[in-house]
Design brief:
The complex is a heterodimer. Chain A is built from two helices and six strands. By secondary structure, chain A is α/β, with parallel strands linked by helices. Chain A has one domain (2-91): NADH:ubiquinone oxidoreductase Nqo5 subunit (Beta Polymerase, domain 2, 2-Layer Sandwich). In chain A, the strands form two sheets. In chain A, strands 1-4-3-2 form a four-stranded mixed sheet. In chain A, strands 5-6 form a two-stranded parallel ribbon. The longest helix of chain A has 12 residues, at 76-87. The N and C termini of chain A lie far apart (29 Å). The mean pLDDT of chain B is 90. The chains are: A alpha/beta, B alpha+beta.
Chain lengths: 113, 362
């Protein structure tokens, strides 16, 4: 797994420069609860040999608003909507209620829940 | 502009076997917009795997993510755990994993095909396909002990060896299935009324599949040659076992049927090759290590790319486990592929997606 560090300020620019739909497949977005911070991850694989995985990651405070990459990766709205529900974070343009019911206690994957 | 109507379908609906909710906006029976919700079956499996269960128990937990592709989940998890433990499993275990994954693909593809037939109004074909599918369930029971949710892959290898009499039974039953598969292939390929219902319906282009990161038979039917079996030789030697890529070009319901039919032949070929060349090695690699670091694994489940991310912290319990099911990757394209189709075609289109919400919502 090839990990590339980025930040919330530059993630759109970094992924925009990297992502080519003919070459890269966006797999999913993930977050790991590190306690005081969250590690936000964006996973891509390559359509051509050696078919490796590239992961962009950025550290974010739990109350930060995460920039959306749906203007770069059209299908990313699904992964972003899931993460909003399961990790109780804010992502630009995503609302609660896609994976969990809107009145569900959100963020079940956070360590303090 | 014509009068628009909103038609909800699901979460409980006669043409939906999964708890998925679509809201179609239609104009004169034509679907012009679709909204989807998947929020009915979240079970907190990832949370449970990182709090209540030790990492060796997790392979049994993730086997309950899905009844249809249980072996894909247990294998993908076992592989990601083996990466964290830095162990290599015996070659026989790799081959046995591939054997069960391909048998599982046969029953899953036949199930999908039967539902496409049913939702296209061809109930006799639904019953015939389900009848022919039964042999794969019986073989899975003979090999794994269960018809579904087989806890076959474990961290370090597989839980049961393949007995010679069971291996012979597999070969015999596959021989018996071949003429039945020919019969099904002929009907799905040539039946006139089924073609009317399936050709040109629910189509996406290769460009759309690329743009929306579509996976599995859904992508391959549109001409996008993407299959994890072609990409991860280091974990399971698919090409050595006889894997061949199958693609179609029209991207419609008919093409999805054809991809699945043709993949049944590939699966049968792989199973025969495995049984005829099964290596004589142990089936488990023992280790007392604890998972450390982070790793990702991809595996081609019947519906497409299954993704596992795991992070260990040198304890018995994982720090984080993330599961991404193939249907999850296809949601964006599923919504788009309805546009421009007749509302009456929606049931067949939905069945041809082969959606699995149990995997998606976890």
């Amino acid at each position: 797994m090839n990990k590339i560090a980025t930040s919330l300020d530059t993630v759109q620019e970094d992924i925009g420069r990297f992502y080519d739909p003919e070459q890269h497949h966006f797999m999913v977005m993930n977050a790991v609860d590190l306690g005081q911070q969250l590690e936000i991850q964006w996973f891509f694989s390559h359509y051509a040999p050696p078919y490796d995985t590239t992961t962009f990651f950025a550290l974010a405070s739990p109350d930060a608003t995460i920039p959306s990459i749906r203007s770069i990766v059209a299908s990313a709205w699904v992964a972003e909507a899931e993460l909003v529900d399961l990790m109780d974070i804010r992502i630009e343009g995503s609302e609660k209620g896609f994976v969990l019911e809107p009145d569900f206690d959100s963020g079940p994957l956070r360590k303090n829940k | 502009m014509a009068q628009q109507y909103e038609i909800p379908v699901g979460a409980q609906h006669i043409s939906l076997l999964e708890p998925l909710h679509f809201k179609f906006t239609t104009e004169n029976e034509k679907i012009v917009h679709t909204d989807a919700n998947v929020y009915y079956v979240h079970r907190g499996i990832e949370k449970a795997c990182c709090t209540k269960f030790k990492f060796r128990q997790v392979s049994f937990v993730v086997g309950r993510v899905c009844g249809l592709c249980s072996i894909s989940h247990t294998t993908a998890y076992s592989q990601v755990a083996e990466k964290l433990l830095k162990i290599e499993i015996p070659k026989r275990a790799k081959y046995l994993r591939m054997l069960v994954i391909e048998l599982d693909r046969i029953h899953s593809h036949l199930l999908c095909l039967s539902h496409v037939a049913e939702n296209s109004g061809f109930e006799a074909l639904f019953m015939k396909t389900m009848q022919y599918r039964e042999f794969s369930m019986e073989l899975l029971e003979a090999i794994c002990g269960n018809r579904i949710q087989y806890d076959f892959s474990i961290v370090g290898g597989v839980a049961r060896d393949l007995k010679p009499e069971v291996a012979n039974q597999v070969l015999r039953r596959l021989d018996h299935f071949m003429p039945q598969l020919e019969e099904l292939a002929d009907i799905f390929r040539n039946n006139w009324t089924l073609s009317l219902k399936n050709k040109g319906v629910g189509a996406i282009s290769r460009e759309t599949a690329l743009r929306l990161n579509v996976v599995g038979p859904f992508a391959r039917a549109a001409g996008l040659a993407v299959d994890v079996r072609n990409e991860t030789e280091d974990l399971l030697p698919w090409k050595e076992a006889g894997f061949e890529m199958v693609t179609e070009t029209s991207g419609d319901v008919y093409a999805r049927n054809m991809v699945r039919i043709r993949e049944l032949y590939v699966s049968i070929s792989i199973i025969r090759n495995i049984i005829n060349g099964l290596p004589e090695t142990p089936i488990v690699t023992e280790t007392k290590a604890f998972p450390d670091g982070e790793a990702v694994v991809r595996l081609e489940a019947p519906r497409g790319e299954l993704f596992y991310y795991a992070k260990g912290n040198k304890t018995q319990v994982l720090e984080r486990l993330k599961i991404k099911a193939p249907t999850f990757s296809n949601v964006a394209a599923m919504v788009e592929a309805f546009r421009g189709n007749e509302y009456g075609s929606a049931p067949a289109i939905i069945a041809s997606y082969d959606p699995c919400l149990s995997c998606t919502a976890r």
